[in-house]
Amino acid sequence: MAELKTEEMILNMGPQHPSTHGVLRLELVMNGEIIEDVKPHIGYLHRCFEKHAEAMTYPQVIPYCDRMDYLASISNEFGYAIAVEKLMGIEVPERVEYIRVIMAELQRVASHLVAIGTNGLDIGAFTPFLYCFIDRERILEIFEITCGARLLYNYIWIGGVSRDIPEDFQKKVKDFVKYFRPRIKDLNNLLSYNKIFIDRTANIGVLPPDVAINAGASGPTLRGSGVKFDLRKDDPYSIYDKFDYDIPVGEGEKGTVGDCWDRYMVRVYEMEESLKIIEQAIDNIPEGDVLSAVPKRVRPQEGEIYFRTETPRGELGYYIISDGTVNPKRVKARSPAFCNLSLISQISQGAMIADIVAIIGSLDIVLGEIDR
Fold first, then answer.
1. DSSP code of 228?
2. Which of 78, 216, 265, 302 is most solvent-facing, going by the fewest CB within 10 Å?
3. Contacts of 104 (CB under 8 A, 6+ apart)
4. HEC states along 35-92?
5. In the Cβ-directed half-sphere of 67, how many Cα atoms lie within 13 Å?
6. Is residue 5 over pLDDT 70?
7. What is the pLDDT confidence band of residue 14, given thresholds at 50, 70 and 90?
8. Helix (H, G, I), strand (E, B) or coil at 175
């Protein structure tokens, strides 16, 4: 009996597909329903962050940082502000450090809630998506009373923060931690250990640790493959070395280490660890003036710096070149989502077309950070 031969079919997915998490076009090379290759095409958003930065003063760049990874704006500002502070030799007050860490960890939880909720939604679980956004709303309310914004903040300034925390900030944060910890258990019962969700994500999109390292993957994408690397621990910045918390990694609990389920669960576990950091920091915020170290004019001497921080998506680095003027000569952003997305071809080959949706969701990409 003659073997049935089929021709390759090119299938375009996106750039307006709801499961591509932004304006991403995937060129799928298909053999029937089996994926033979995936070519990601980026460049539909045109955020132009790096070119904008050359025409702005150093403080004016911060709102543009917000607009890269718009689901983790505080994290973007954090790294940029520290990079410029190190370039200028500015030491910020300890009160500022505590506020920054608390806000950054709240932002991490908020970002992971979007990642988890949309990952479930892609696969067909609608209710967990609503639960995640209800909880995220509580964090956005804290951000709103702190800096007046819910998505794009311009809160972390060079040398400080734009304004001090309000009187009821600590109470609201404590109330959120108390409220949210049992909600993580509810989420696990509803989605994480749901048999259909496990069947759709376990042993799918397996990323071996050596491949992840060689491709420059970071964040939950790297840690989902069992690699225990987190800049907050391995290259500490700010005051992260003062707190006791763990770095969760994928363990192959429901399948092979490094699959979609592992990358998903690392984010769930990270939310619990962020709550630990917030609990330790919230009662120990020292007194001080949050604007005392903010320079009236930001004009670094000629030089260059590269600084990296651990954002919800991984290692975000800023390479800044100063020519001694009030505008940076060059600002280059190292995007974690860009490196993570570059792996999609290797971890999708041999999968079914329905699996590509689960794989994209597990990478948690934000196109504003990729197309910059």
1. -
2. 302
3. 74, 75, 78
4. EEEEEEECCCCCCCHHHHHHCCCHHHHHHHHHCCCCCCHHHHHHHHHHHHHHHHCCCC
5. 15
6. no
7. confident
8. helix
pLDDT digits (tens, 9 = 90+) for 179-211: 999 999 999 999 999 999 999 999 999 999 999
Residues 6+ apart with CB under 8 A from 300: 58, 84, 87, 88, 322, 324
Tokens 């025409």 appear where? 55
Is the bond preceding residue 15 a cis peptide, omega within 30 degrees? yes
User: Residue 332 phi/psi, 5° resolution?
Assistant: -115, 130
Residue 157's beta-bridge partner residues?
Answer: 160
Q: What b/e string do you get for 136-158 counting C-beta neighbours within 10 Å, with b at 16 or more? A: bebbeebbeebbeeeebbbbbbb
Query: pLDDT tens digits, residue range 47-101?
Result: 899 999 999 999 999 999 999 999 999 999 999 999 999 999 999 999 999 999 9
**117-132: average pLDDT:** 95
**Domain total in the chain:** 1
Q: Per the domain annotation, does 265 fall within a domain? A: yes
52 token code pair: 């904008």
pTM (predicted TM-score): 0.96
105, burial (CB in 10 Å: exposed 0-12, middle 13-18, buried 19+): buried
Residue 346 within any structural domain of the chain: no
Closest CA to 312 of 355, 365, 368, 250: 365
Mean confidence (pLDDT) of the chain: 95
pLDDT at position 4: 65
CA dist 269 → 109, 185, 196, 218 (Å): 10, 11, 20, 16
Bridge partners of 303, per DSSP, are: 322
> What is the separation of C-alpha 123 from the centre of its chain, rounded to a whole number of angstroms?
21
Other Cβ atoms less than 10 A from the Cβ of 117: the count is: 25
pLDDT digits (tens, 9 = 90+) for 228-254: 999 999 999 999 999 999 999 999 999
If DSSP codes are grouped into helix, strand and coil, which group holds residue 329?
coil
CA-to-CA distance for 329 and 7, rounded, in angstroms? 51
Question: The CATH number of the domain where 242 resides is what?
Answer: 1.10.645.10
Domain housing 81: 59-326
Does a structural domain hold residue 367? Answer: no
User: What is the model's pLDDT at position 2?
Assistant: 60
